[in-house]
Design goal:
Helix content is 45%, strand content 3%. The chain is mainly α. It has a domain at 13-93.
């Protein structure tokens, strides 16, 4: 079982995950490097990947439900990891999805700055808008919205 931690969360996604789930003790590893690498590919951000790993750790610890060793009840540890997973999931739900600029389930208001507008327009992978200033307003204007000469001449 490969377990590494370079204690560099600023530069290593694996170390961030280990930090978030509390898997920092090399003498009692909870999750392998390979499992962390796979989870990172499955989720849009590291908090959601860490939440999934915390759920996996809770499941692992839950198998020993009610067992006691050295004054520690293992069922309690599983509960703690479930709570940690819920907290990480909540944080992950508000984090951005890669470089899209949009929060998960949120709305992105782009083009507020000139640099942001230019960067979005230069992105060849972005979905092109259905209309622009050059092509004019949509064919059927929305009910209740009046387009005046002043607005349409922009």
């Amino acid at each position: 079982m490969a377990w590494t931690n370079t204690d560099s969360p600023a530069t290593s996604d694996r170390d961030i995950i280990r930090y978030l789930v509390g898997d920092l003790d090399s003498t009692a590893p909870l999750v392998t490097d390979a499992a962390i690498a796979w989870e990172i590919t499955q989720w849009p951000n590291l908090y959601l990947a860490a939440a999934s790993i915390a759920d996996s750790i809770a499941t692992l610890l839950g198998r020993t439900q009610g067992m006691r060793a050295d004054g520690v009840t293992f069922g309690d540890a599983a509960k703690e990891y479930r709570a940690r997973a819920a907290g990480l999931r909540a944080r992950g739900a508000t984090m951005g999805n890669g470089s899209s600029g949009a929060a998960a389930g949120g709305v992105y208001a782009g083009g507020i700055s000139i640099a942001d507008k230019n960067a979005r327009e230069a992105d060849t992978d972005r979905v092109q808008p259905s209309f622009t200033r050059q092509t004019g307003a949509p064919a059927s204007p929305f009910i209740g919205i009046t387009v005046t000469d002043e607005l349409s001449s922009e």
